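Team,

Forwarding the record for the chain on the shared tracking sheet. I've put the sequence and predicted structure together so nobody has to dig through attachments.
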Amino acid sequence: MLARWDRAVVEAFQDARWHPADWAFVHLSDWWVRSLLIIGIALAADLWARRLPVAALLSTVAYFAAGGITEGLKDVFDRPRPPLVDPAVHPLVAVAHSGAMPSGHAATAFGAATAAGLVHPRLRAPLLVLAGLVAVSRVWLGVHYLSDVLVGAAVGAAVAVALWLAVTWAWAPVFPRGGAGSAPRAPLAPSASSRRAPRSAPAAGPRRASRPRRSRR
């Protein structure tokens, strides 16, 4: 059932091919999009926030970790790529000799994007959209099934979340409030009002003797 569904999706993408879309997906599948571009965005966000480059480092580690895990899983599943078993599929890029399940492009893209998005929540949605386009490009180009990229995306996201939890747990004793990447807070300096000398009470002068009141007759 799954194989039939995967084949139908790939063949539908073959019928829907359009030259501008082909050009866009070919470039979305380039290695630098899922690595240098996403990690560079994470580094720029770190610098903009004036914090330690945690997002850039975490996305880099997630990228390589997800790639290594998918290489091992490819040997386990040993699934052939669509053009090797379906003559109706005509790939637009070179077909790798490795297995199809899971997609390394999807895993590394989602690993780096999820890691950066966990550190910078405002970047989460656009980075995940970019990673999704990278994953879809592999199906559009005819070198992966849809289930390949779905499993790859899940692997990459899981790796990033695991790394994030490990980093935040290890960082908690040092930065209990700010989280990973935030600089330790210096003690607050005394305010200007607190540095002012307290006002001295006015000196008490000699009291005037009270005159006796005259009684009215």
